[in-house]
Design brief:
15 strands; seven-stranded parallel sheet; single chain; 254 residues; 9 helices; three-stranded antiparallel sheet; alpha/beta
């Protein structure tokens, strides 16, 4: 990485976002000293990031917005190197010839981008389907259902029936929130229903997410941690214990 003062604007803004996701809030003065630029430069950065829906400006700094409530486009810009590294780590562990179910979400999208066949994949995510549609060694199945333009996915009874009639070796799920006692929870009821069906219709269940989802609880229950065999994340949660059946893999961004 270049010397802080020599960063391009886009690089500097990604560093700001990374610090914001780690700490939850930042101040103009601290960022200016840390990045060795002027306060005005930091204010312009924060203004641009706020316009993209990535943070909320405050007096003298900024705070991170509620991640599950962000638009999909905004979430895709958070910790992109982490998502890419997680996607590659998961894809490398998938045996050739597997039948897969891929959940919607930006981190699972990174798995799809790194995935190599042969494999059969069922998904309700249009973005994942688009990524896989140009890979000739992937047999692609896209569920029908009700279209959600904000999340860019299909849901509802038709999507659930398609999932129910497919048997997968591995379901790879993302999560809106992960809590040691409450397990995986979702912001939307429809999303939780699809996730539960992915779990029921697969032999193995893998969970992939970044640390911003730790120690959060959303309104709709999906599953306890005991329902998953593997957890891929960019850092280990600061929890006293994990289910003995859950294998934790931490992945560092390149």
């Amino acid at each position: 990485m270049p010397h802080h003062g020599q960063m391009f604007t886009a690089e500097r803004q990604q560093v700001i976002l990374q610090r914001l996701t780690d700490e939850g809030r930042v101040s103009v003065g601290d960022l200016a000293r840390w990045l060795e630029v002027s306060d005005d430069t930091i204010r312009r950065d924060l203004q641009q990031l706020a316009k993209q829906g990535l943070l909320l400006k405050t007096h003298g700094g900024a705070v991170l917005l509620d991640v599950p409530a962000m638009s999909r486009e905004a979430r895709q810009q958070l910790v992109p190197e982490v998502k890419t590294a997680l996607g590659r780590a998961v894809a490398e562990q998938i045996p050739p010839g597997s039948r897969l179910m891929l959940d919607a979400g930006t981190t699972v999208l990174a798995v799809a981008q790194a995935l190599t066949g042969p494999a059969a994949v069922l998904t309700h995510s249009l973005d994942i389907a688009n990524v896989l549609s140009i890979k000739p060694d992937i047999t692609l199945i896209l569920t029908g259902g009700l279209w959600d333009p904000r999340q860019r996915l299909f849901h509802g009874q038709s999507a659930i029936e398609t999932i129910r009639n497919f048997r997968a070796d591995i379901a790879i799920l993302g999560a809106c929130a992960l809590h040691p006692r409450c397990g995986v929870t979702a912001t939307d009821q429809a999303d939780a229903e699809v996730k539960r069906e992915l779990i029921r219709s697969s032999a193995e269940q893998w969970l992939v997410l970044d640390h911003m989802k730790f120690d959060r609880v959303e309104p709709h229950a999906v599953a306890d941690l005991t329902n998953f065999q593997r957890l891929y994340c960019d850092r280990a949660p600061a929890w006293q214990s994990f289910p003995s059946t859950l294998h934790l893999t931490t992945v560092e961004a390149a």
